[in-house]
Specification:
Shape: globular
Strand content: under 5%
Distance between the termini: 37 Å
Number of helices: 6
Number of strands: 0
Largest sheet: none
Length: about 170
C-alpha cells in the first residue's frame, strides 16, 4: 500500500479511537451499564472491561500514529473493532436491538443495527490493510498536511452522512 493512503487510514482510525475513548471516559458513570446490557460478560468482568476499554482504545490510537508500532496498533485495532461487531451481531441475533451501542456520536435511543456491524467490520478491514503497508518513501510535509486535511474532511462529513442516511436505515429496521 502507498504511504499516503496508509497515513490517511492510520490518522482516521486513531481519531476514531481517541474520540471513542473520550466518549467513554465522559460517560464513565453509564459506561459499565452499557457494557453489561450486552449480556456477553460475567458481572465480575464488566467493571474491569469498562475501565480498561478506553485505555486500550487510546493505546491503539497512539500506536497507529508511530510508524514502528503501527502494525501492532493496526492488528489490535482490527481485533477491537471485530469484537465490537461480534457483540452487536450476537445481540441483533438475540433480537436485542434497543441497546445503546456505546458509540461516540450515536443518537440517544438509536439502538444497534446491522449497518453498525458492517461499519465496524469495514473499519477492521481498513486496519488490517495497514499491515500490508510497505515501508516506502517518506511523505513530504505537503502530503502530511493533505492527509490531515483529508481526515478532517472525513470527520466532518461522517455526521452529515449519518443524518442523510438515517431515513434509509429507519426504513430497513
Amino acid at each position: 500500500m502507498n504511504a499516503y493512503p496508509a497515513l490517511v487510514i492510520s490518522l482516521s482510525l486513531a481519531l476514531l479511537l481517541a474520540v471513542s475513548a473520550m466518549h467513554q471516559l465522559r460517560a464513565a458513570g453509564q459506561w459499565p451499564q452499557m457494557i453489561a446490557n450486552y449480556r456477553l460478560l460475567p458481572a465480575s468482568l464488566v467493571r474491569p472491561v469498562a475501565l480498561s476499554l478506553p485505555l486500550i482504545e487510546l493505546a491503539c490510537a497512539l500506536a497507529l500514529l508511530v510508524p514502528r508500532t503501527c502494525p501492532a496498533g493496526a492488528l489490535a485495532t482490527a481485533l477491537l473493532l471485530a469484537s465490537f461487531a461480534l457483540a452487536m451481531h450476537v445481540n441483533i441475533r438475540r433480537g436485542r436491538t434497543a441497546l445503546d451501542c456505546g458509540c461516540a456520536g450515536a443518537r440517544p435511543g438509536q439502538g444497534i443495527a446491522g449497518w453498525m456491524v458492517a461499519r465496524n467490520l469495514l473499519l477492521a478491514g481498513l486496519a488490517l490493510l495497514l499491515l500490508a503497508a510497505a515501508p516506502g518513501r517518506t511523505l513530504s510535509m505537503l502530503e502530511v498536511v493533505a492527509a490531515v486535511g483529508t481526515v478532517a474532511t472525513l470527520a466532518l462529513l461522517y455526521p452529515v452522512a449519518g443524518t442523510a442516511w438515517a431515513p434509509l436505515r429507519q426504513g430497513r429496521s
